[in-house]
Structures are given as structure tokens and as C-alpha cells.
Specification:
single chain; four-stranded antiparallel sheet; globular
Length: about 120
């Protein structure tokens, strides 16, 4: 079992920044990959970015150059730094982790970008 707890969402104006955090209940070395997904109202959940246990990041095209995924091994935490936010980034953001062929999800954190 893996518990994931997200934090850091909120309301921000377009062009602003937010940093999301995902704290895992076990070492992030064992979670491969870990990532962030998002789901806007009426839309399917989509991958935003993920990172392997080796530290290799992968980004969706719509966030390249604006978002950065990273992790702190000592704190068992993965971060998503979001810069130059746009109204279309408004969604619930979910942390995801793969462990022993199962995928675990956090409860989600709301990000709202006003124009």
C-alpha cells in the first residue's frame, strides 16, 4: 500500500506560479514512476509530468518549458513547480505512483488560474 498526500493548490492569476507537493508513505526510490495528472471539468484525466526513480523527467507538450517536476528523496516527496500558469491549467491535480504493478492516487488538489 502507498499513501500519497498532495498539497499546494490554490487560486492564482494568469502568469503566476504555484508549487505542488506529493508526500509518499514510502521511499520514492521504490515508486517508479511518480507523476502528476490533472482533470478539468468535463475532460479526461491527463498526464502532466512524471519522473522515474532514476530521476528522468517526462512532460506533456502543453507544459514543457513552464512546469518542472522534481523529487526530494530524503523527504519522500515529489514536487511540481508550475510557472507561467494559464487559465487552461485550471484542474484538479492528482499525484500518481506506480509500485509493484499497482497504481496509486492521491486525493487531488485544486488549481484555479484566473484570467
Amino acid at each position: 500500500q502507498v499513501q500519497l498526500v498532495e498539497s499546494g493548490g490554490g487560486l492564482v492569476q494568469a502568469g503566476g506560479s504555484l508549487r505542488l507537493s506529493c508526500a509518499a508513505s514510502r521511499s520514492v526510490f521504490s515508486l517508479n514512476p511518480m507523476g502528476w495528472y490533472r482533470q478539468a471539468p468535463g475532460k479526461q484525466r491527463e498526464l502532466v509530468a512524471d519522473i522515474t526513480s532514476g530521476g528522468s523527467p517526462n512532460y506533456a507538450d502543453f507544459v514543457k518549458g513552464r512546469f518542472t517536476i522534481s523529487r526530494d528523496n530524503a523527504e519522500n516527496t515529489v514536487y511540481l513547480q508550475m510557472n507561467s500558469l494559464k487559465p487552461e491549467d485550471t484542474a484538479v491535480y492528482y499525484c500518481n505512483a506506480a509500485f509493484r504493478n499497482f497504481y496509486y492516487w492521491g486525493q487531488g488538489t485544486q488549481v484555479t488560474v484566473s484570467s
